[in-house]
Write a structure and sequence with these properties.
Layout: H1 5-12, H2 18-22, H3 37-43, H4 46-64, H5 72-80, H6 91-103, H7 123-135, H8 140-151, H9 164-171, H10 191-195, H11 201-208, H12 211-214, E1 233-247, E2 258-269, E3 275-282, E4 285-289, E5 295-299, H13 304-318, E6 320-321, E7 325-329, H14 338-347, E8 352-356, E9 359-362, E10 371-374, H15 380-392, H16 404-407, H17 412-423, H18 436-439, H19 449-465, E11 476-481, H20 509-514, E12 516-521, H21 524-534, E13 537-538, H22 542-547, E14 551-558, E15 561-566, E16 569-574, E17 587-593, E18 600-605, E19 610-616, H23 629-651, H24 654-680, H25 686-713, H26 716-733, H27 735-738
Parallel strand pairs: 1-7, 7-8
Antiparallel strand pairs: 1-2, 2-3, 4-5, 6-13, 9-10, 11-12, 14-15, 14-17, 15-16, 16-19, 17-18, 18-19
Helix pairs in contact: 4-6, 5-6, 7-8
């Protein structure tokens, strides 16, 4: 073994003649046999191997002292005096180890403390035991107890051993198999020994809780953030505080007073771990009418619209750098919608990108159920800071604990009842229904949202100034202290606080040598300011910022309207001013709408090119009231504009103009034919005109029949020549009326 050359050599080259010098009958070899070298390398740590080597060499000397004329114990004490600085090599311990080594027949394993030899259990049994432990969601001990107290005594088939009856018959062939379980177990089936075969925590967590729970027991990927620039990576995440707040209600929106959890969403700069923006509010409940007519209590949680408002705060407050910005978000509640992602890309000239954390879709067993969830460890920079904040906010009133059922206050329900009774909201004679402005003046067991925000901002500011942290990628700051604060310090030196290296420039060399250096990590705020000075940012365009206040929706230009659905409601915006001219049918666009007042929509191409503003058809998603005749007339007029625009576009096409001119010529020709007919039959009576018309019709039919017979006898060239001659003769007869067109013949 290359990793143990000195150890193996010292073991294998131990003197074999030392035992013969003692005169003992049983020679001992104070070395590890070469056959055990692999076991030593795999089972023992380097320090344990060194201690074993030293112990064997000393025991060899102890063994050589036996059989002499002098007192053996006294000689061992004299020998141990030279090793008194080494733990475990006192005279008493050397004698104990020596006798144990002798009794074990020279087995080196007795000299290693708590040594566990390689497994002697069958591999199939070890696999069965590990599966048994993994299936028990409580503890390893419970699974081992099941094996020892239930499965084995009841005669269950245990892989590698069979039933206890079969094992007993093989182990004790000279004895009859007992009728009852005799409480005998195979060798090594002690609880302590069986625990050694337990699977790793990663195995247990993977089977019992899934891949996300096993992540904590797997190798970690360390991602270096030291080279990031400010706002190059921004991570956003939602959170819920460990406290309740008092919500005074909002009568205009129909929200009742209540005790609500506090949640929010946070944006953090990964390069400096500085909080760029945050939104905090109560997670209130309200009644929502269901399709079947019933009402259901629904809690308002953080949604994608809050992520959009958060980004507005980030870019309004801190501007935008000239290099690309990557926003890291999850795929669940605090996510960025695809339409918002397109909006960010279009208004920033593709400099703002969105990266979504991974989604888990995992099955431990091939036919098992699917585990779905997020990967919070991919945004650990922001996740790791939440717990520190909650610890500092743990003394707030209204604290409910991370899990109200397990570690929440026992009087929480009583405090909630007191608040609800105090505000007296509801229907009834004794209900006061206090307005929000009165509730805001009450002293309740729960803080109001403004108080929570104040505490949260204070804790965040304290974290950003903290230097005792373990944030990766931060630089080290060197400061200098005056060694004796009680004595006056030189000019420009703070005797009681840290001094920067620049402050030492005004000191003499002797005074500089007196200053005591000290190193610390730079704070989040220091790193943010230092990096910001190196990488300047500019203000985000005001016109683009306004778009953040609108909700982007991916829509389609179809049937001369920009159409989409939002929250199961159809929206249709028509082009009154012709801004969509030239846009092909079924083109995907982005519509920016304020859904509180959805009368107008700002429409852009997906690449950010502006198209214009369109009005909602009907000015309300529900349409026009059937009784509002004026509104109906207005919408008809708007629709008529589109109709006239379509007609004008059709008529302006050259191909249709040629067809229109041909139709005009046909009309003129028909009018001329009718006029000649009227002139020729003006003096005839009505009956004569009818007869003449019938005669001409009969003559025309006869001529057509003759032509059909002639076609059968005459070839095509002769027929064409005859028709041409007739047309020429007719042209000479009526030169003015024919208009060079003989098709009427």
């Amino acid at each position: 073994m290359s990793i143990l050359p000195s150890v193996v050599d010292s073991y294998s080259l131990a003197s074999a003649g030392s035992a013969a010098q003692t005169g003992l009958a049983a020679p001992l070899r104070f070395a590890v046999p070469l056959i055990d070298a692999d076991e030593v390398a795999m089972q023992l740590k380097p320090k344990a191997r060194h201690d074993l080597t030293l112990t064997l060499r000393i025991l060899e000397k102890v063994h050589a002292l036996r059989g002499g004329q002098r007192d053996f114990v006294a000689q061992v004490h004299a020998l141990a005096a030279g090793y008194r600085h080494i733990r475990g090599l006192s005279a008493t311990r050397l004698l104990a180890k020596y006798y144990a080594f002798i009794e074990a027949g020279g087995n080196w394993r007795v000299l290693v403390k708590n040594y566990k030899s390689p497994s002697k259990q069958p591999a199939e049994f070890v696999s069965f035991l590990q599966g048994l432990i993994e299936q028990n969601h409580r503890s390893v001990s419970a699974a081992i107890d099941k094996l020892l107290e239930i499965l084995w005594p009841e005669g269950a088939e245990i892989p590698g051993y069979g039933t206890w009856q079969n094992w007993f018959a093989r182990t004790y062939p000279d004895q009859a198999v007992p009728a009852r379980f005799p409480r005998v177990y195979p060798a090594g089936w002690t609880r302590e020994n069986l625990r050694r075969y337990a699977p790793s925590r990663a195995h247990r967590k993977m089977f019992q809780q899934g891949l996300a729970a096993a992540h904590a027991h797997l190798p970690k990927i360390i991602r270096d953030t030291s080279r990031l620039k400010p706002m190059e990576w921004i991570v956003i995440d939602d959170f819920q505080l460990d406290c309740y707040c008092a919500f005074p209600g909002d009568p205009e929106l129909g929200y009742k007073p209540q005790v609500a959890p506090v949640g929010g969403i946070l944006a953090m700069d990964v390069a400096s771990r500085k909080v760029l923006a945050r939104i905090i509010g109560p997670l209130i409940t309200r009644k929502v009418k269901q399709p079947d007519g019933t009402e259901k209590e629904v809690r308002f949680n953080v949604r994608s619209v809050h992520a959009q408002a958060l980004l507005y705060q980030v870019f309004e407050t801190h501007g935008i750098p000239d290099y690309p910005v990557t926003i890291i978000c999850e795929n669940k509640t605090a996510t960025i919608l695809p339409a918002v992602e397109l909006m960010l890309s279009s208004i920033s000239e593709n400099r703002i990108r969105v990266h979504r954390t991974s989604l888990i879709e995992h099955k431990t067993l091939p036919n098992g159920f699917v585990e779905r969830g997020g990967a919070p460890w991919e945004k650990g920079w922001i996740e790791s800071g939440f717990n520190a904040r909650w610890n500092l906010m743990g003394d707030m009133k209204g604290y409910k604990g991370s899990n109200e059922r397990l570690n929440g206050p026992a009087n929480m329900e009583a405090m909630k009842e007191y608040f609800l009774k105090l505000v007296a909201y509801g229907e009834g004679v004794n209900k006061l229904n206090l307005p929000p402005e009165v509730i805001a003046r009450l002293r309740t067991p729960f803080p109001f949202v403004a108080e929570v925000e104040k505490v949260f901002d204070f804790v965040t500011a304290w974290q950003e100034q903290r230097t005792n942290h373990r944030c990766l990628g931060f630089d080290t700051v060197r400061e200098y202290y005056w060694p004796t604060p009680k004595l006056p310090a030189p000019g420009g030196i703070d005797a009681h606080g840290p001094n920067s290296p620049e402050a030492l420039a005004c000191l003499t060399p002797e005074q500089q040598c007196q200053m005591v250096p000290d190193e610390r990590k730079e704070s989040r705020l220091e790193r943010w300011e230092r990096l910001s000075a190196m990488h300047m940012r500019r203000a985000f365009p005001a016109s683009a910022l306004k778009i953040f206040m609108l909700s982007p929706v991916k829509a389609t230009w179809i049937n001369h309207a920009v159409q989409f659905s939002y929250e199961k409601k159809p929206y249709s915006y028509i082009d009154d001013d012709g801004v969509m001219a030239g846009v092909p049918e079924r083109t995907d666009v982005l519509a920016y709408v304020d859904f509180q007042v959805p009368a107008r929509a700002l429409v852009m191409h997906l690449d950010g090119r502006m198209l214009g503003i369109l009005r909602l058809f009907g000015d309300d998603p529900r349409g026009v009231s059937v009784t509002d005749e004026e509104a109906i007339r207005e919408q008809k007029a708007r629709r008529a504009i589109i109709v006239h625009r379509i007609m004008g576009e059709i008529q302006d096409r050259p191909l249709h103009q040629a067809a229109n001119e041909e139709l005009a010529a046909d009309r003129a020709h028909n009018d001329a034919v009718v006029a000649r007919w009227k002139v020729g039959t003006a003096e005839l009576t009505k009956a004569e005109r009818v007869g003449a018309a019938m005669g001409e019709a009969a003559q025309g039919a006869a001529e057509q029949a003759e032509e059909a017979k002639a076609v059968a006898k005459v070839d095509v060239q002769q027929l064409l020549a005859r028709r041409a001659a007739r047309a020429e003769a007719e042209k000479q007869t009526h030169p003015a009326a024919s208009n060079d067109d003989a098709s009427w013949v």
